[in-house]
Amino acid sequence: MNARRTSLREEQKKQTRARLVEAARQLFAEQGYGAVRIDDIAAVVGCSRATFYLYFNGKVDVLREIGAEATSMGVARSFENLEHALRTDSRTEFVAWVRQSIAWFEENKDLLPAWDEAAVLEPEFRAVAREGIAAMATGMTGYLSRWPADRREEAALRVELLVAQLERFFTRWALHGTIDVSAERAAEVLADIWFPALRIPGTEPG
Length: 206
Known about the structure:
Layout: H1 2-31, H2 38-45, H3 49-55, H4 59-88, H5 91-107, H6 112-121, H7 123-138, H8 141-145, H9 152-175, H10 183-198
Helix pairs in contact: 1-2, 1-4, 4-5, 4-7, 5-9, 5-10, 6-7, 7-9, 9-10
């Protein structure tokens, strides 16, 4: 009986945590990061501020978990696909990867403003975002290993700059509406810019 009660209590804790994460996700998407208070998140769930703090240290903590959920599988798969495109040395494969990346941003666009705002307001979140981008590049071990040893840091930087440009393009294109182009055309032009820049030195165009 005690084991059953413990199991039920743990399940209730998991559900409360999940509800807090979902409430925060909705509020951040609707209002941005700065305008949302911890009391607002707790009110959506119907719990107290004290209950929130049983699960999270603050807003940045819950936003970090939201980001991890949104990016963990998608980002890992995306960079596996990027490694594949670069390994095959195929511009067609690279264009397909850019299209997939734009689609990922489309799926997560409601939260992008909150992430940007938090990166400005919260040094802790800014550090997490910086580490995340760096990990994307350094995680592409197969790609980096094919670069000359003395240029691997540069190769990782190129990947980071690609990610940054994709993010800024999407923000201006889909969120601000200041770039008027189709997703297909954008993918082609971005590939023209980045495929040559990411190719392994000394290889011929594919």
